[in-house]
Amino acid sequence: MSYAFEPTITSIPIEGSSQKFPVRRVYCVGRNYVEHAIEMGHSEREAPFFFTKPADALVVNPESINYPSMTKELHHEVELVVAVGKDGAEINSENAWGYVFGYALGIDLTKRDLQADFKSKSRPWDLAKGFDQSAPISSIIPFKELGKLKEGSIELSVNNELRQQGNINQMIWSIPEVIAELSKHIELKAGDLIFTGTPSGVGEISRADNMEVYFKGKKYLNLTLKQYEK
After folding, report:
1. How many CB atoms lie within 10 A of CB 93?
2. Taking the CB of residue 150, how many other CB atoms lie within 10 A of it?
3. Are 196 and 175 in contact (CB under 8 A)?
4. What tens digit of pLDDT does each residue of 107-144 get?
5. Measured between alpha carbons, how far is 214 from 56 in angstroms, rounded to an integer?
6. Which residue has the higher pLDDT, 47 or 84?
7. Per residue, what are the HEC states of the chain?
């Protein structure tokens, strides 16, 4: 059997390895930090909800990305990303760590004006979250390097100005709880990624802005927004 054209496989380098992590699906947790939930006008603790981004929305270790079309209010949301290493459904939270292949740092870029418009009309807001280059991401850090992550500072700066600063111990739903809850709805597969939510301080970014992402004081992403190019 042959294909009409060559399929595209999205993959992410693994630190310390010549292998790459093949991406299947990308899930994102909404409002998983108390202060961010409050700044977005919601209560402190709600049941976790999920949305998705296409795998090819990922941009791995980019030096720059295009400022997207169809928005005048692009927002940054820095997140710890969990890479899933084996299949599982209805996973018990006590066993969830066994499904973690590793971690990465990512930015969930959002067309906030478009999202608000869709929400006001009770329409799905996929195009406000899943557009091209909407998910810059670092290389995968293997689980053995960081272990069972329960705390750690996470930061994003724009033009050397600190915008977002939090700690993953502030998550409303911990990594094992997120994995367990998501696996009730779908069978997780090796190759899945989970963006685990963003701390408070999300805000607008403009053309030519530079963003830097840090986890536990180490820089993982450094990229600049440029004019949209077709």
Report:
1. 16
2. 12
3. yes
4. 999 999 999 999 999 999 999 999 999 999 999 999 99
5. 23
6. 84
7. CCCCCCCCCCEEEECCCCCEEECCCEEEEECCEHHHHHHCCCCCCCCCEEEEECHHHEEECCCEEECCCCCCCEEECEEEEEEECCCECCCCHHHHHHHEEEEEEEECCEEHHHHHHHHHCCCCCHHHHCCCCCEEECCEEEHHHHCCCCCCEEEEEECCEEEEEEEHHHECCCHHHHHHHHHHHCCECCCCEEECCCCCCCEEECCCCEEEEEECCEEEEEEEEECCCC
Cα four-point dihedral sign 132, 48, 175, 210? positive
Closest CA to 44 of 194, 200, 148: 200
| Strands 135-137 vs 58-60: parallel, antiparallel or unpaired | parallel
What's the confidence (pLDDT) of residue 227? 76
Entry pTM: 0.94
H/E element, 145: helix 143-146
pLDDT bin (cut points 50, 70, 90) of residue 43 is low
- Quick one: tokens of 184? 């009730």
